[in-house]
Amino acid sequence: MDTTQRTIQDTKFSASNILFYLFVTALVAYGINYKRKRQRMEYLASKIPGPPCLPLVGNALSFVGNSEDVLGVIDEFLHKYTETAKFWVGPELYITISNPEDLQIVLNNTKTLEKGPAYRFFINTVGTGLFSAPVEKWRRNRKVITPAFNMNLMSHFVPVFREKNAILLQRLKKHENTGKPVDVWEYISGAALDIICQTAMGYNVRAQEEEESEFAAALTKASELDCMRIYKIWLHPDFIFEIFSFFTGLKETYKTLHKLPKQLITEKKAEFQRKMESGELDFNEDAKESKKLKVFLDILLELKAAGAHFTDDDIRDEVITMMIGGSETSALTLCFTLLMLSMHPEIQDKVYDEVYSIFGDTDRPIEMEDLGKLAYLEQTLKEALRLFPVGPVFLRKVTEEIEVGKYTLPKDCNLIIPPLNVHHNPKYYSNPKVFNPDNFTPEAIAARHRYSFIAFSGGARGCIGSKYAMLSMKVTISTILRNFEVHTDMKMTDLKMKVDLLMRSVTGYPIKLTTRDRRPSHVRKAQPNPNPSPVSVN
Prior knowledge:
The protein is of the alpha+beta class. It has one domain (38-526): CATH 1.10.630.10. The protein contains 21 helices and twelve strands. The protein has helices spanning 3-46, 67-80, 100-107, 123-126, 135-145, 151-154, 158-172, 185-201, 214-231, 238-248, 250-278, 288-292, 296-305, 312-343, 345-359, 368-371, 375-387, 419-423, 442-447, 466-483, 521-526; strands at residues 85-89, 92-96, 114-115, 182-183, 394-397, 402-404, 407-409, 414-417, 484-487, 497-499, 503-505, 510-515. The strands form four sheets. Strands 1-2-8-5-3 form a five-stranded mixed beta sheet, with no helix packed on it. The radius of gyration is 27 Å and the shape is globular. The termini are far apart. The relative contact order is 0.15.
C-alpha cells in the first residue's frame, strides 16, 4: 500500500473515531442532563411509599395481562397502599391519591388540571373534547358548553326522556313474563344514545330501531383495543400501533365509530345553514325564549358561524365526547342499578313505593317537578355509582410541584385517582361491598367528607353533565319499575369487572321481567293482585 492510500485510510479511520466519540459524548451529556432534571423528581418520589422496581422498566411488568388482570393488580396495589403511594412504568412516575382530604386539594388545584399521558391512547376514539382536551382547549370549550346544561333548559328534555323510554318499554315487553333472563345492555344503551342525541344535538338517530347499535358496538371494540395499548407497553410507540391497528381492523372500527357523529354534524350544519339564509336564526341576546331552547350542538354551530375559534374537528370531538359521555356512562349505571334492584327485592320495593307515592296507579306522565321528589331513587343510583363507578380510575398530570398531605408531588409526575378504591374504603362506608342506598341519606352524606364520593370526578374538571345524567336516569328507572318487576339469578359474587374506556360487567346484565303489580309493597304482600296492569309513559 503506497503512502497516499495509507494517508486516506488513516484519515477515514480518524474521522470515524471522531464521529463515534462525539456520539458517545453527546449520549453521556444527554444522560447526565436527563438525570439532573429528574434528580428532584426521584428525590421526592423516594419519600413516597411504593413497591420495589426494576431498572429501566420500573414496575411495568406487574401490569402485563388483559384488562381483568390489570384491574386486579391495581385493586391489590390500592388495598396494600391505602392512601398515597407510587410506582414507576419505565421513566414515568405514577402516584395514587385516594384520601378525600388530598383529593380535595388535587382536584381543585390549577397545577393538576392537565389529563395524564395515557389519555392520548384514546384520541383516535374520542378526539380531544372535554374528556381528554389539553387545559387551554378545555378552558375555552367548557365555558362555551356549560350553558347547554342549565336546569331551565333541562326541563325541556323531559318529554324526550319520556318518548325514548316509551320505545324502550315496547322493546322490553317481548321479554315480559317469559321466565328467561335478557341482557338489558343492548336495550338500555340504544335508549341512552337516542336520548343524548335528541337532547344535546337535536337529532333523532333512532338507535332503538336497530337490533344492535353500530355505534355502540364500534365503541366497545375501539375502547377495548385502545385500553389494551395502555398495559401492553410495546404498543406505546405510534408507528407500532399503526401496524397493530391495520392488522386488527381497528382503523375500520374508528371509521365506523365516527360515521354516525359525522353524519349527524353534516345534517345539522346543512339545517343550520338553511336557517341562517332564511333568517330563522335569532342571534339577539334579548331573544330569551330562542336562546333558552338552543341545544349543545346549536351553540357550537352558532359560535363557529360568529367567528369563534371553533374548527370542524373541534365540533366533531365534542359531539363524540358528548355521545359517549352522555350515553355509555348513563347506560352502564342504569344496567348496574337494575341488576342491583333485581338482586335486592326489598330495595326495589322501597324505590317502587316512592314512585307509587307520586303517581299512584295512574298513567300520568312523569314531569320535571316529579323528579325532585324521587329522593330514594337518587340514593339508589348514587349507590350503584359508588359500587360500580363507570370511570374506576382517572389520571392527572402535575405541571408544578404541589404539597398534598405530608408529601410533595413532583413536577411531571402522573396522578392516579381511583373512585373504585375510594368508594370501597371501609373508613368512609361500612360494609363497602354491600349495596345500601342508605349510604346516601342526607345524614350519611353530611357525616362523610365531600370527596369520599367522586363518581363524577370533582373540582373544575368534574363531569359537566352530572345533573342531566341523574334526571335522565331517574326517568328511565321509574318508568321501568312502573311497568315491570325485575329479578335475576345472579349473585354479587358472580359479578366480574373489566375496564376499557369505562368499567363494565364481564357477565353482562341478565334480568327477568315480570308484569308489575301496581299496588304498594305492603298491600301487594298482604294479598295477591289477579289483574296487574302496565303503565303508559306517553
